[in-house]
Amino acid sequence: MALLLWVWIGCTVFVLGCAYRAYRYASAPPHLRWDLYPVAHEPNKHGGSYLEEKEWWTKPRHSSLVGEVVVMGEEILFLAGVWKHNRRLWWGSFPFHWGLYLMVLVTLGLAVASFGFGGQPLLQALGVVGAVAGALVAAGSVTLLALRAGDAKLKPYTAPVDLINLAIVAILGILTFLVAVGGMTPVATAVGDLIRIRPLEVSPLLAAQMGVAALFLFYLPSTRMVHFFSKYFTYHEVRWDDRPREAGSALDRRLREALDFGVDWSAAHTRTGKTWAQVATTLPEDTQSGE
After folding, report:
1. Is the domain of 127 the same as that of 265?
2. Using an 8 Å Cβ cutoff, are 199 and 4 in contact?
3. Do the beta carbons of residue 48 and residue 37 sit within 8 Å?
4. What is the pLDDT of residues 158-174, one digit of tens each?
5. How far is it, in rounded angstroms, from Cα 252 to Cα 137?
6. Are residues 172 and 271 in the same domain?
7. What is the dihedral of CA 174, 178, 184, 189, to 10 degrees?
């Protein structure tokens, strides 16, 4: 009964924690608006912008959803950004991510199998995929752990909690591999009992795997691994947000609210106690002279 409760607690905290963080991202003030090109939804611009066109404000704007899907697909499936900017890290990050993708797929498949669909062919296939997923996660985690612990360039961006996280995920990968190799029939039964909220009767190995998986889900919303959904906001609300400010629009209202925020620091060009609107409309020399 304790394992059943722990798994449900882990899943519940995961869902609520991710929902809360998504809400915080969605309700945050507008980001600092600057020009970051290329913008994926700009069709046939070769990395440029509609702002390059003469009298662009008199012309209809065109947006390409296909362009966004292609860029996001490259990032999700192939980790294109890591490959481009840190290829050494990619060799650990790629199997790590794909192992987690396959774990999610296997979990969904087990949920289907727990209701009697697919029979032994599905369970056998899930066993193979589960073993591959566990091996990839373990290999990727250990590689990333070694790189983050030993690469001087990565040390400034690596907190102790990052190393602990990778160690826990590595353990999860090893346990998943061992469980999958042992056969998925008892795992499908356990998943069915979880869904129906029945007491779990599982082997010590499967109990350990489920317990570690619940631990991973429990703390995941508090880590940087929420980038699996937060990247939507960083891409669409920051990198690709090139909407013009139109009077009366929702963006215009949000920007006006942001300009009313107070400034609680001082420098040569500003003083504490002003709003951002006042800072933006006051020349530095006026501030220095006390005007």
Report:
1. no
2. yes
3. yes
4. 888 889 999 999 999 99
5. 45
6. no
7. -80
